[in-house]
Design a protein that fits this description.
Oligomer: heterodimer
Helix content of chain A: over 70%
Structural class of chain B: alpha+beta
Shape of chain B: globular
Strand content of chain A: under 5%
Structural class of chain A: mainly alpha
Distance between the termini of chain A: 27 Å
Largest sheet of chain A: none
Number of helices of chain B: 2
Strand content of chain B: 35-45%
Radius of gyration of chain B: 20 Å
Number of strands of chain B: 6
Distance between the termini of chain B: 70 Å
Radius of gyration of chain A: 20 Å
Number of strands of chain A: 0
Helix content of chain B: 10-25%
Largest sheet of chain B: 6 strands, mixed
Largest interface: A-B, 46 and 32 residues
Order of helices and strands of chain B: HEEEEEEH
Chain lengths: ~300, ~120
């Protein structure tokens, strides 16, 4: 049987996906700036621009996601999104709290990204890491605001402290990993092969820790959400989780191939082209994982216990 | 073979082949009248009992082609039981469309239907 989300559900999913991408661009950019210490001004400027655009999209996603929820209930076309009565109830609800923290986090990120992207164009030498001290603190605060928004809504919000901490760790590790892929892709266009290999190797070494956190935190969440392995096969939520798990296995395989087979080949232009193509596939699979996570954290709920 | 297209295509084939999914969040545990029943007396109110405390933010009682009056007001307080007065009910087919915000912040929308047939009582 074909299953297609309604227009409102589709808009809700799209908005949530934008917030995930916004968070990924924030943490990915922060991770890259920290990892690739004393990067050139141009590269740093590009990373900051990427983060700023991501924050803008995330802000729109959070704002319109709130309005779409109102519109979905009122069900009176686009004008229904601005119904004051329903809107004021939602403002007082967990969704209102979530939206407030997300908007705050993305607004702070946008301001920081825009400010530092402009500042960096005025300096005459590559920025040192301590140049970003205030920026790093601000971005971490912004990300904490986004993480804190999970406390108020979502299936995990009503589960134990372990689950809440697990999703924070899982979300952070995934955002840092996936959010770094696009900057890495841009770096791969450099003419300096040694530079590319150095950056990719550094990322690969750090990504091992991110993957470990992802797997452990994800495992803890699964233990809390499912009473038995059978539930993963017998419930709708479980079946979608299995699809996500398949994609996770795929992306881990791609990442392993990148690290073990393609990174050593970054000594030739053909090696760089191959790596770049693999990165594109990795980014695509990451987007599919994010899409499916968005779907089953919005439309479908975990099995009732 | 174009790997990215293959992956995307496989993904959408799998997703679209899933059975129609129903949200497993907040759910209506019971209602009076119940879904799908034919009742022989005209009810003066609707009772809705949810599986957890919810904010009921929308309730429409639809007759055939028109909305019936009720005393429903969107609730900013979360409770599990709602009693909605339904003055002016008459024999016919009715559908109740509702929307509620659960404890997890998700909004659930659903509906149930019933028939009032006062002639059946005298048969």
């Amino acid at each position: 049987m074909l299953m297609v989300p309604s227009t409102w559900e589709f808009l809700s999913l799209a908005c949530k996906l934008l917030t995930y991408l916004g968070a990924a661009s924030l943490l990915g950019a922060l991770f890259c700036i920290w990892l690739f210490k004393n990067e050139t001004r141009q590269v740093t400027h590009n990373i900051l621009t990427y983060m700023t655009v991501g924050a803008f999209l995330g802000f729109q996603g959070a704002l319109f996601g709130f309005l779409v929820q109102i519109g979905m209930v009122v069900n009176n076309g686009p004008i229904g999104m601005f119904d004051r009565g329903i809107g004021s109830i939602y403002l007082d609800s967990p969704l209102g709290d979530t939206t407030f923290f997300q908007l705050s986090g993305f607004a702070l990120t946008f301001i920081l990204g825009l400010t530092y992207a402009n500042k960096i164009q005025r300096i005459t030498s590559p920025p040192r890491l301590d140049y970003f001290r205030f920026f790093n603190t601000g971005c971490i605060l912004a990300f904490l605001l986004l993480i804190f928004s999970f406390r108020f809504s979502g299936h995990i919000s009503i589960l134990s402290v372990t689950s809440k901490l697990s999703i924070a760790a899982h979300y952070s590790a995934f955002a840092a990993w996936i959010g770094s892929l696009y900057p890495l892709y841009c770096l791969s266009f450099s003419e300096n092969l040694e530079y590319i290999q150095d950056r990719v190797k550094k990322f690969g070494d750090s990504a091992v820790a991110l993957v470990a956190v992802l797997i452990v935190a994800g495992g803890l969440m699964v233990i809390e959400l499912f009473d038995s392995i059978a539930e993963a096969f017998s419930t709708n939520y479980g079946q979608i989780f299995l699809i996500k798990l398949s994609l996770v296995v795929l992306i881990l395989a791609i990442a392993a191939i990148n690290r073990l087979r393609l990174t050593p080949r970054l000594v030739s232009k053909s090696g760089v082209v191959l790596f770049r193509q693999s990165l594109k596939v990795e980014i695509l699979v990451a987007l599919l994982i994010l899409s499916i996570t968005t779907y089953f954290s919005t439309i479908v709920g975990p099995p009732e216990h | 073979m174009n790997l990215p297209r293959f992956i995307v295509g496989t993904f959408f084939c799998i997703v679209f082949s899933l059975p129609a999914l129903v949200s497993a969040h907040t759910a209506l545990k019971e209602s009076s009248p119940e879904d799908g029943v034919t009742i022989t007396s005209i009810p003066s109110d609707l009772d809705l009992v949810f599986n957890a405390d919810v904010r009921l933010i929308k309730l429409e009682l639809m007759g055939v082609g028109h909305e019936m009056p009720t005393n429903f007001e969107p609730s900013s307080t979360a409770v599990s039981t709602y009693k909605i007065e339904t003055p002016g009910m008459h024999p016919g087919e009715f559908t109740v469309n509702w929307a509620a915000i659960g404890a997890d912040g998700h909004t659930v929308t659903n509906s149930f239907s019933f028939v009032i047939d006062t002639d059946a009582a005298s048969d």
